[in-house]
Each structure stands twice: as C-alpha cells, then as structure tokens.
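The instructor's notes for this session suggest beginning with a concrete chain rather than abstract definitions. Hand out the sequence below and ask the class to guess, before any prediction is shown, which regions might be ordered.
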Amino acid sequence: MRILVVEDDKKTGAFISKALKADGFAVDLLRDGDEALAATKVTPYDAVVLDIMLIGRDGLSVLRQMRARGNQTPVLLISARGEVNERVEGLNAGAEDYLPKPFALEELTARVRALVRRGGDVKSPVLRIGDCTLDTITRLAERGGRKIELTTREYRLLEFLMRSTGRVCSRMMILEKVWDFNFDPGSNLVDVYVGKLREKIDAGSDAKLLHSVRGEGYVMKEIP
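After discussion, reveal the predicted structure:
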C-alpha cells in the first residue's frame, strides 16, 4: 500500500513518514501543494495524509481539485488549527477524516489503516492486465493460471508497473517508488530486477506484457 504524505514541516513530515513505513506502508513525502496535486495525477495512492497549511497551493485546494477531477483516494486532513469550522470545511470538501495537531503517531497510523480498509471496500485488491493478475492483499501473482513466485522486491516492482499500466516508467521513477531512493546509484539495479521479473511474467507466453522503451524505461501493457 502506498501513501502520499503532504506536510511542509520537515520534522513532522519525517516523523509521519517513518511511522507509516514502520507500519508496512510505502510512503512518498512532499512539502508543496502543487507538487502533491501533480503526484496524485500520475500515482494511484491508497490514501493521502494532507496538511492544510502548505507551501504553494493549500491542502483544501489540493483536495478540491482532486475531487473535481474524480480522484476518490481517501484523504486524512491534518492541521495545527482545530477549529470546528475548519474541520467542517475539510469534510465538506471531500476529506474522509480530520486530525488536529498535535497528535499521537499511533493514532495517525491507525486512522490511515482505517482509510485504506474503507477504500478497499470499493476498490478491487486485484490488479489485472491481460491474463496476468496480482492480488495486493495475498501478494499472489498468476499468469494464465500459472502461479508466479515473487521476492518482496519483485512484488513491489510488479505492483508499481501494473498500477502504472500503459505508462512508461523511467528507471529513476522505479528507483523512487520501489526502492525509496531519491538518487541514482549508478548501477544496473533496475535493469537486473526487470529482467528477472520479465522471465517470470512472460516466460512461456506468446503475448508479452513487460516491455522496454529504449532510452526511457519500461512499461506494462498488452500489444494486440
């Protein structure tokens, strides 16, 4: 499960990110409202932790824009201001929950878990492309009825590529989302793992699903 945390205070953002990662979530941390809105356009998050007071576009504006374009990702608003009218405004804008600062990290992670469970009630946990499926709850992958054994890193790579079906993913993007790197280690790490995953996914199948795009990266898609 991938969570977007949008918090302009570096220390608070780091604490939230660390707590969610310790709880088993993959986390993207941003400080800027405009960057957050752009991120929600390209990455299918399972939940968003959104501070109201942000650099650039404020949190309520980010939330309204998300809902206006049909993005129903569950949102937990956080704010140092706990006035009732602000809570009401946030909930009316489309937030699922609201948590005033200061808060216990245990409560925040519990609320995020609850949001993800609620979101799962309306969103299928099974990703599918062609005859390949990935159950994001059991972490079981199949291709044409054939079970595919995946390592933890291979699972994260396949989940990210399947959630990005049809979109070319650069090596840097894969490093950020799958390895949580914000730098290029200067190795062929991504290429090696993609090669291993391709062998498992496309082996024995005439219709290939995992494709290289020269000079750009990789993409999961069906080619008629």
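Then share the key points. The chain has a mean pLDDT of 88. Residues 2-122 form a domain with the Rossmann fold fold (CATH 3.40.50.2300).
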